[in-house]
Design a protein that fits this description.
Largest sheet: 7 strands, parallel
Oligomer: single chain
CATH class: Alpha Beta
Number of strands: 7
Number of helices: 8
Distance between the termini: 32 Å
CATH superfamily: NAD(P)-binding Rossmann-like Domain
Strand order of the largest sheet: 3-2-1-4-5-6-7
CATH topology: Rossmann fold
Number of domains: 1
Structural class: alpha/beta
Shape: globular
Bound molecules: nicotinamide-adenine-dinucleotide
Order of helices and strands: EHEHEHEHEHEHHHE
């Protein structure tokens, strides 16, 4: 199936590693020119080099997605280097898991900033370009945690917020040929979850709760995002695609 992504320009936030890096690679393999952007400069540059070595079109813009000036620079650099922007994947994220009684205001604000404010700033920056060209794809990387997870009041709220935001934008921008959707990953075996003290327990519980008995892989998300970003998904908007091995609770 030709996804119609050849020549499209895609920004994937938080794409130095994990789900973002896999998604950027898949979009590039489908013919898109991808912008790797991350707060981790060294890793973002290394990932960009790897993609280029694979013969893919990739450009690196280092920045903090929570800072408006960094986001403006991201758009300016994208336009200067690739001449346009057609796809935005709001993937950057970081957890601060704690029971509410131990969660500080800083823990709350940190998670809201990276996930929600970052997605807002990036969406606001690309939208005029999407509108002008009458075509655009916005994909927010939410999580099955939008349904709630203990120790994740901040993370679950932010991930539910990303769904609300995509649904609102699907209504606002649909008339311009723009779609806004979410993917909601379940347990995905990435460095983010491997760094958690509870990694083994979480993994075991997640796989036990899934009809499909394996941990999720970054490519599972990459494939789902590539489809939603594609020409083929032009009549799908305001949707949440769960990539959870069949787990919804
Ligand atoms: N791994 C999972 O099980 C899982 C499940 C559901 C949803 N998700 C979501 O998927 C996304 C990617 O997760 P991952 O597992 O690949 O995590 P990861 O930690 O491997 O990757 C996240 C990337 O975001 C970057 N980042 C963090 N803060 C940033 C900022 N302020 N500005 C720019 N970049 C920033 C990090 O440097 C990192 O490279 C996240 O939004 C996460 O919440 C992950």
């Amino acid at each position: 199936m030709d996804l119609g992504l050849t020549g499209k320009v895609a920004i994937v936030t938080g794409s130095a590693r994990g789900l973002g890096a896999a998604t950027a690679r898949r979009l590039a393999q489908e013919g898109a020119k991808v912008v790797i952007t991350d707060i981790n400069a060294e890793l973002a540059q290394a990932t960009t080099r790897t993609l280029r070595d694979e013969g893919l079109a990739a450009h690196c813009v280092v920045g903090d997605i929570t800072r408006a000036e960094d986001v403006q620079n991201l758009i300016d650099e994208t336009l200067a280097h690739f001449g346009g922007v057609h796809v935005l994947v709001n993937n950057a994220g970081a957890p601060r898991d704690k029971y509410l009684v131990k969660m500080s205001e800083e823990d709350w604000d940190f998670v809201m900033n990276v996930m929600l404010k970052g997605a807002f700033l990036a969406a606001k920056a690309v939208m005029p370009h999407f509108i002008n060209q009458g075509w655009g794809r916005l994909i927010n990387v939410s999580s099955r945690a939008h349904l709630g997870n203990p120790t994740q009041a901040n993370y679950s709220a932010a991930k539910a917020g990303l769904i609300g935001m995509a649904k609102a934008l699907s209504m606002e921008e649909g008339r311009y040929g723009i779609t806004a959707n979410c993917v909601a990953p379940g347990f995905m075996d990435t460095e983010m979850v491997q760094a958690l003290e509870t990694y083994e327990t979480i993994k075991e519980r997640a796989v036990a709760a899934q009809p499909i008995k394996r941990a999720g892989r970054p490519d599972d998300i990459a494939d789902a995002v590539a489809f939603l970003a594609s020409e083929r998904a032009g009549f799908i908007s305001g949707e949440v695609l769960h990539v959870t091995g069949g787990r919804y609770g």
